[in-house]
Amino acid sequence: MLLLRRRGITMIKQNVVKDSDFTEIAEVKADGKNRVQLGRKVKGSQTRLYRVYQNVHGQIMLDPQVMVPASEAWLFQNKQAAQMVQKGLKDARTGKVTKSKEDFSKYTEDPT
Question: Is the separation of the CB atoms in 47 and 41 below 8 Å?
Fold first, then answer.
């Protein structure tokens, strides 16, 4: 993991290549504006945002991205908070929860 600082924003750069086992799915030709259409060639992906990487050999890799609302970005920038959330989710999945002494539903907007 690498921390980058761009335009006053700290970004976490993780290893881009998660698996080196690539399968060729199509051969496409760039149009006059150097655009490539993926069309239906990329199966199972509803992603419309990609980060584009290019190595010294000219190979290009597209890494699917998702947008995170600015109000939630702090969690991705705060390693300790992110770890606490991950632990809480793991505890919930494994049933490691305790009954609260207070009813916190009164603090929610939806009374159900």
Answer: no
Q: Which residues contact 28 (CB under 8 A, 6 or more apart)?
A: 36, 37, 38, 41
Q: Which two structure tokens, joined as six digits, stand for 23?
A: 């399968």
User: Does 8 score more than 60 pLDDT?
Assistant: no
CB 11 within 8 A of CB 5: yes
Q: What is the model's pTM? A: 0.52
Encode pLDDT of 89-99 as tens digits. Answer: 999 999 998 88
> Residue 2 — very low, low, confident or very high, per pLDDT cuts 50/70/90?
very low
Instruction: Report which secondary-structure segment, H or E, holds 5.
Output: strand 2-6
Tokens encoding 39: 């069309």
Cross-strand pairs, 61: 53
The residue with tokens 């539903």 is 105
DSSP label at 90? H
**Dist CA 47 CA 104 (whole Å):** 37
